[in-house]
UniProtKB/TrEMBL annotation:
Provenance organism: Ensete ventricosum
Residues passing through the membrane, by range: 112-133, 154-180, 200-219, 226-245, 352-370, 390-410, 513-536, 556-579
Protein name: Major facilitator superfamily (MFS) profile domain-containing protein
Stored PANTHER family: OLIGOPEPTIDE TRANSPORTER-RELATED
InterPro entries referenced in this protein's UniProt entry, alphabetically: MFS_trans_sf (IPR036259), POT_fam (IPR000109)
Gene Ontology MF terms in the entry: transmembrane transporter activity
GO cellular component, as recorded: membrane
Taxonomy, superkingdom: Eukaryota
Amino acid sequence: MKRSSRSSRRDSSMDHNPLLPDGTGAASDETGREERKPAGWKSMPFIIGNEAFERVATNGLTANFMVYLVEQYGMRQMAAATLSNIFSGTSNVAPLLGAFVSDAYWGRFRTLSYASVTTFLGMVVLTLTAAVPQLRPPVAEQSGQRLGPSGTHLAILYLSLALLVLGAAGVRPCSLPFGVDQFDRSTEQGRHGLNSFFNWYYSISTAATVVAMTAVVYIQDSVSWPLGFGVPTALMLLAIILFFAGIRLYVFVPPEGSVFSGVLQVLVAAFRKRKLRLPAPNDAVEQETLLYINQARKSTMVMKLPLTLQFRFLNKAAIVCEGDMKEDGRSADSWKLCSVQQIEEVKCLMRIVPIWASGIICFVALTQQWTLAALQSMKMDRHLGPSFQIPPGSLGIICLITIVLFIPIYDRILVPMATSITGVQGGITLLQRQGAGMAIAIMSMVVAGLVEKKRRDSALAHGGADGSSPLSAMWLAPQLCLMGVAEAFNAVGQVEFYNRQFPEHMQTLAASLFHCGLAGASYLSTFLIAFVQKSTGGQGRASWLDDDINVGRVDYYYYVIAALGVGNLLYFMVCAHLYRYKGTPELEDGCKDIKAVL
């Protein structure tokens, strides 16, 4: 395999990149219309408003879903729980498909539009099952209980859920990245606005979830199911109208083709040229001569990435050999020759995956708090005043309210204070924010263990294994508040990290990766519960997670999760130390990596 020594192989179309500091950052339309500059916050009322109504709608429809299946569809509890878990898990994995379609074919705006309409149709079908008696099982005359669903009833139900999953596949990965597209990241104002956007987006989304889990659920339980489903459906229609109302302000980033084929091309090309010698790191002239520096992207929003030495073996995919180039300076075969830009984008993915994996354990802590805190509260005094009693499932709202209150304080007070001290935009780095969330999550689990021991001792002292503790359920508030702060740091930090560090044309994949982390945490939580039950129970012993919480030792289980969190935090610190932020150039000697130290 002979190398080519021509110096004209560099693609002149990328000599000036509009996203570099001296560029304008204007973005092109998905449909090829005239370019327009990002409108920034002017377009946010439409995008964040759409997200708020969409969250109230979808969460209002699914928050009480298992109760609906049992009461109105006559399903057994375990069958309803299984269907609910499958629906939730599939909805979190489906965004991978939506991200692929968006990045490769449709673009974010078109994918988001189709998915929103699909979600609305799914809501309409599910609302009809509640409003039309013939679409759900009848009530037995003698027992007064609802009969089990027939095949037709299940087919209609599954149709609504399939439409909702398809809608989630497009909405979840595209909503946030489409908002990011509206900021000009080549300007100081655009970058500052983007910092606040992530915080406000997550805060408003969480506030919408609180509304869904309180007001909408109340309508479903206390008024009627048709109205309880009809309100979210109407809100989803309003979200679609609001989204299209801002179309004159939006910028549209065009799709760049299949993300996965681009990754495979780099790996295959690097393997084919594995025996070739790379140019010296310090020799810029040799690099210019022997490497295929760049090729044009369709979108001007794509940042031009410098050549780095991390994962240096991949750089061989850019070595130009005889016959690799066309006369116009482009690659003749993408499976033999890849640009430096393509290679560095693959490196971005390789650097992010270890960081993403560390977030799963943190989400396990979040998941367990929601589930076990409800069980704990059932053996505590849940009264607020003489007559009102807090529903066990509503205690998790304390965590959500904490997020809603803390994020604006963090964005408007703590970030400016930290920025004046550290000089870092955003106050602390994205990795430091995630690490802080992990540390606070560990503290939350330790506090949860201490509170559970106090609750258990009190319950045993006031009635034995079947007794209920006179302690107020508000004793659970500290651990839930800490978990809310942990989520505000880690979850928002992850969202911002993925959207900033993924290549620009892969940001829908970045959003889907966050949801895959949630799905992974759910699956890991299921495994942990089964493992602890099997390893601590049996042979006449009650397991730590016994059905009777007073007999079990949930406090020990909390400490196990805290210990896993400590190990995970140490792993994360190593990954953060080795991580190189996207676009970071090599040090002058060309031999050292720039580290992002937690």
